[in-house]
Amino acid sequence: MILERASRKGTMIRRLVQTSFFLLCVVFGSAQLSLAQATSSAVIGVVDMQKIMRELDVVKDINAQVKALEDKANAELMAEENKLKDERKQIERQKTLVTPDAYSKKQSDFNRKAAEFRVKVQEINRQLQISRVNALDKIRAQMLPIIREVMDKNGAALVLDVSEILFVEKPLEITEEVMGRLNKDLKKIKVEIVPLKKS
Questions:
Q1: Which InterPro entries does the annotation name (predicted)?
Q2: How many helices (H) and strands (E) does the chain have?
Q3: CA dihedral 31, 35, 38, 40 (to 10 degrees)
Q4: What is the C-alpha to C-alpha distance for residues 73 and 42, in angstroms, rounded to an integer?
Q5: pLDDT value at position 43?
Q6: Residue 41's Cα: distance from chain center in Å?
Q7: How does pLDDT run across 96-148, given as a tens digit for each residue?
């Protein structure tokens, strides 16, 4: 079904956004890498960004907002899709009652409507995903200074995501502290639907 394919595509985009965010956090700490290599006493902080982006209150709120918008859009699209299905059945029933030329024109008109509907589904899905990414970007702008404060407070020369680490001797686990600060200090973001440029 058209709507199911759009939903799977949306899931893939969300995973890409999360992966990009993890990499940004790794880059955020990379400026301190030479200091960490220069001394064996350097403190290396470790955070589980996947957990943070899964359990952070403000991210849950954004996901809930997007889900509500998706549910509303899907209900409207489902109604439109059902109308198209009914129209197709009517055209098939009229096949023996109209001339071949009239039937061909009806088929052509229907195919045009179906193609426009598929484009509409793709555009709405893209619109929702861009809106979600924009909201997460606003969160990221608030997060990085807070992570930096936790890093400085603990004397960490470098902060890495746990998924990027093969082995670190005596790492400083700061995930819970970072989450506590973020849940306390991050402002909630309203997901705003972005207008899409017509192609």
A1: Chaperone_Skp (IPR005632), Skp_dom_sf (IPR024930)
A2: 6, 3
A3: -120
A4: 51
A5: 86
A6: 39
A7: 888 999 999 999 999 999 999 999 999 999 999 999 999 999 988 888 898 89
C-alpha 39/C-alpha 58 separation (Å) is 37
**Two tokens, residue 125:** 């899905």
The two three-digit tokens of residue 96, written as one number: 């023996």
Annotate 57-109 with DSSP letters as a single string: HHHHHHHHHHHHHHHHHHHHHHHHHHHHHHHHHHHHHTTTTS-HHHHHHHHHH
192-197: which pairs have CB atoms within 8 A and are 24 or more residues apart? 192/131, 192/134, 192/135, 193/69, 193/127, 193/128, 193/131, 194/127, 194/130, 194/131, 194/134, 196/123, 196/126, 196/127, 196/130
Residue with tokens 């709507």: 3
CB neighbour list of residue 195: distance below 8 Å, 6 or more residues apart = none
* Residue reference for tokens 């899931």: 11
**Encoded tokens for 108:** 């052509």
